[in-house]
Amino acid sequence: MTTTPKPSQERAIGTVAIRWHGSSLELLDQRLLPGEEHWITLEGAAGVAQSIRDMVVRGAPAIGISAAYGVALAARHAGGGDWKAEIKQAIRELAASRPTAVNLFWALQRMERIFHACHSLDEAVKRLASEARAIHEEDLAANFAMADHALEFIGAEAPFSVLTHCNTGALATGGYGTALGVVRRLHEEKLLADVYADETRPWLQGGRLTAWELSRDGIPVTLNADGAAAAIMARKDVRWVIVGADRITANGDVVNKIGTYSLAVLARHHKVGFMVVAPSSTVDMATASGADVAIEERDGIEIREIRGIGLAPEGINVFNPVFDVTPASLIDAIVTEKGVVHNPNITGMQALFG
Ligand SMILES: CSC[C@H]1O[C@H](OP(=O)(O)O)[C@H](O)[C@@H]1O
């Protein structure tokens, strides 16, 4: 599958968050955005696993791409003794970094298949680096293809507004975006009136990352509190809610950032379209439904504090799930690089993903 990047894609292409240098990997520390653009240089899988766990790099596709490079680094810096054991340990460490985004496990399985076919350390260094780059480049190409499929599906002839949640742009992918890739193409085709970006508590991926990405690219964006989404759908010309995904199960259920499920309920109530945009590396046909997916829960301090400033009584009990499950019945379209599943259900998912 080859797609020719459009002008906006040329500009947006790029290693916005992930830079591979052969014997090191640079990650933009997304925890410090928008105030500071600081790059972390890593030379081993353990550092990549920690960066994923600490959300230096986040976003399902970006997590998979970074983990793939982490395996390549393990080979590149293997001691030469029991190099196979070192690479197996690296894969285990990376697999334990975060539990929900299936892209992580999909990427590691691809790397493991290459690893098991290698008969020498030299061969492993070369082939694992090549496979990691291929995973990165394929994700970027998938971003472009998804944007094209989405625009064809939406079929708009005049500008309209969208609402999005979390960050699904170049920072979360191979360098262009899933839901934000659609936003970029709409803007390029002069079909975008405004983007309402949920700030997306508690990590504020919307306020800190999406607003940063879109304003940096000259794309209209209006930041809103998560709680304002209903009023926006009631009062503004929002035609579509467009979000990403961390895992899409065989029946079309979508696991995504906490707050996505409530957006889907609101969208259905307000007769606003609800679109999920994700590469096929996010589709998990081996898992029957969203009820079967491990939902990451993170430390309550992320709710109680922001950068050390208390927002709630110290030690207050917190429920901090990072994702929720949106049932397929509330989704109008799942857009992947392989095509669109309209009104998703198990039959539609099997037709496209087998
Ligand atoms: C294209 S990114 C997909 C997905 O990943 C984000 O989660 P996180 O920031 O916790 O890694 C968010 O759920 C996005 O929708």
TrEMBL record:
Alphabetically ordered keywords of this record: Amino-acid biosynthesis, Isomerase, Methionine biosynthesis
Active site: D246 (proton donor)
Top-level lineage group: Bacteria
EC id: 5.3.1.23
Enzyme class: isomerase
GO biological process terms on file: L-methionine salvage from methylthioadenosine
Protein name: Methylthioribose-1-phosphate isomerase
Gene that specifies this protein: mtnA
